[in-house]
Amino acid sequence: MSLEKKLKDQVKKKIKGQIRTKIKKEIINVVKEAEFPVEDLEVLFNLFPEGRDTVYKISSFEFTVGEAEKLLENDDFPFKNPEEIANVILERLEI
């Protein structure tokens, strides 16, 4: 692998890590006042300011909370804390 390719890969990893960190903080900040456990999708979506339509955009990466509906499974519930919500969503989005 060329040095140029290695550097590009490192930059991509770093940017991905920064995006993950920023979105994770934002999600945690939004849901931290919720009553836990969060038992289902409707309760989860209602925690966000625009519900399913809440958009997270950082650089060229963008997703809506509603997109999480396709990624979450019944077995993911209940969520016990804000970090768990953020981690599962980001994991499923492969960030």
UniProtKB/TrEMBL annotation:
InterPro entries listed in its UniProt record: MTH865-like_sf (IPR036825), Uncharacterised_MTH865 (IPR024093)
One Pfam family named in its UniProt record: MTH865
Lineage top rank: taxon: Bacteria
Protein name (record): Uncharacterized protein
Species classification: Bacteria, Bacillati, Bacillota, Clostridia, Halanaerobiales
